[in-house]
Known about the structure:
By secondary structure, this protein is α/β, with parallel strands linked by helices. It contains five helices and six strands. The protein has a single domain (8-149, 157-182), classed as 3-Layer(aba) Sandwich (Rossmann fold). It is globular and about 35 Å long. The model has no long low-confidence stretch (mean pLDDT 85). Residues 29-170 form the AB hydrolase-1 domain.
Amino acid sequence: xxxxxxxxxxxxxxxxxxxxxxxxxxxxxxxxxxxxxxxxxxxxxxxxxxxxxxxxxxxxxxxxxxxxxxxxxxxxxxxxxxxxxxxxxxxxxxxxxxxxxxxxxxxxxxxxxxxxxxxxxxxxxxxxxxxxxxxxxxxxxxxxxxxxxxxxxxxxxxxxxxxxxxxxxxxxxxxxxxxxxxxxx
Length: 185
């Protein structure tokens, strides 16, 4: 339950997307938070990843440190993520881990770009925190939703396909979730 010291570096891509990066080699893993959250929700789990993964946790526009946009289109976000992956020189098809509503972006990305795997976790709306250890609950606080997302796709999200699906599996057991990702080579 005590993550390794972070090997995280923080960046901004073309003044569009703020992101954190762990590692320099290995399978790229793109970590997408749900609406109302930010990239910090991935910190406990990403700190547990080994050196065989390059993890990139992105703040969606209007979240965390990414600037807001007038409108956030799912297709545009998928394209922005593809440009980010290309700009970072990540030459292998990424694994996308999408929390809650970010499953829409991950699905569009996978439909248009080479993708190793998409894993969806979480819920639609504020998640249940029972089972999330108290030190990690701070990473699961939902904030206000920017207006730019008002016209996002409505309806059911893809069901979680993590074997131990809960609202925040990456916070309930960061080391276990990291171990799962380390098997996706």
